Automatic annotation (TrEMBL):
Keywords: Membrane, Transmembrane, Transmembrane helix. It comes from Glycomyces terrestris. It comes from the Bacteria. This is Uncharacterized protein. The chain crosses the membrane at residues 16-37, 59-78, 85-102, 108-129, 136-160, 180-202, 223-244, 264-287, 308-332, 338-360.
Length: 368
């Protein structure tokens, strides 16, 4: 006697999504009040705020924050929605994930990743070295190289310190604004997760879709991983041309016009994009399930699924939700080359699909 597999949604995940949606809605109240009571200094009046869809001039200034407060109140109720009410939570996901987002979060995240590229490059020899003695020798060699670079003037550590001070100061200036932008992106992700939980809860007792089987997920997940990897190539490879006399970004540019600081910063951004693309492949290859040999202390051990799933889900949500404002910004500022250089509209969904397939293969998402 056989029985057909049925979906068994993880109720714990659904409860976590509902709680997150409730807390997110609570935050909408003070944020809306902040903008309502301080129209000139609120988070939606910041110099960096460039909305994807602007309200008509005829709409009074108080209408936007008032609508946000109302959305927060309704969200407190929607967080406890039943499976049949998933269109309401999907509407929240669409509005806050695609309509109210801006390009600020992706720009900020890109610069943060680029900031750590030199650190990772310096640490790479130590991570790749075999044995304790090998790592000590590698660390000593890296330290000696850094000293030589400073003594010979190749690297101006005083300038680096000044840059870090400037960077930290600017970060402090925009921190509240970026927290609100992060809250909006998080809202899109939270309401999407709650919608998926409600849809799965509505399938109890029904046959599970065939694509949820691990062997099927491995096939379409591999395709999604390679698509996500390919999406990182246009920008990363374009930045690498800055190492050549044939620099290119949206068209050929004179390399002599790129000062060293800009060149280094741009290359760090390019390497960050390419590194992110390589990590996308970890969703489908063995080094995404077992720590590689160059990871001390944990090499060869299984990678805890959430170590890969959580950051990949965050990046997939970020890329997906900023795709609409990014394309809108490119069109608005006549920068159509950005549309193909940053294909977030493909990269985000592809990475999301690859992450889902990985979760199915690792048993985090199951069909029984």
């Amino acid at each position: 006697m056989t029985t057909e597999p049925t979906t068994q949604p993880r109720r714990r995940t659904g409860r976590a999504a509902a709680l997150a949606a409730f807390l997110w809605s609570l935050l909408a109240l003070p944020i809306g009040l902040w903008q309502l009571l301080d129209p000139a200094g609120g988070p939606f009046s910041h110099e960096l705020y460039d909305p994807t869809f602007r309200l008509p001039d005829a709409v009074p200034a108080w209408a936007g924050p008032a609508a946000l407060i109302a959305a927060g109140v309704l969200g407190l109720l929607a967080a406890r929605a039943r499976p049949g009410m998933w269109p309401l939570t999907a509407g929240y996901a669409a509005v806050f994930g695609l309509v109210l987002t801006t390009t600020s979060p992706i720009a900020f995240a890109g610069y943060i990743c680029a900031f750590f590229v030199p650190v990772l490059i310096a640490a790479a020899p130590v991570l790749l070295a075999r044995g304790a003695i090998g790592r000590l020798v590698a660390a000593a060699a890296v330290a000696a190289l850094l000293v030589v670079l400073g003594v010979t003037g190749v690297v101006d550590y005083a300038a680096v310190g000044a840059f870090l001070k400037m960077f930290g100061g600017r970060f402090a200036e925009i921190s509240l604004y970026m927290l609100v932008q992060t809250w909006i992106i998080a809202g899109g992700a939270i309401w999407t997760a709650l919608t998926l939980a409600l849809v799965l809860n509505g399938r109890e007792g029904r046959p599970a879709p065939a694509w949820l089987a691990p062997d099927r997920a491995a096939r379409w997940g591999r395709t999604a991983s390679w698509i996500a990897f390919a999406c990182a190539l246009p920008y990363g490879l374009t930045r690498l041309t800055w190492l050549t006399p044939w620099a290119w970004i949206g068209g050929p540019i004179d390399s002599s016009l790129i000062d060293p600081a800009t060149r280094v910063w741009g290359l760090c951004l390019g390497f960050a994009a390419l590194g992110g693309g390589v990590l996308c492949l970890g969703m489908t290859y063995s080094w995404g399930t077992r720590w590689p040999f160059w990871m001390p202390a944990v090499k060869g051990r299984p990678v805890p699924p959430k170590v890969a799933i959580v950051p990949a889900s965050i990046v997939a949500a970020l890329f997906t939700f900023v795709s609409v404002p990014f394309v809108t910004m490119a069109i608005r500022h006549d920068g159509l080359e950005l549309v193909w250089a940053f294909p977030f509209y493909v990269w985000g969904p592809a990475l999301g699909a690859a992450t889902l397939a990985y979760a199915i293969r690792r048993g985090v998402v199951t069909a029984r």
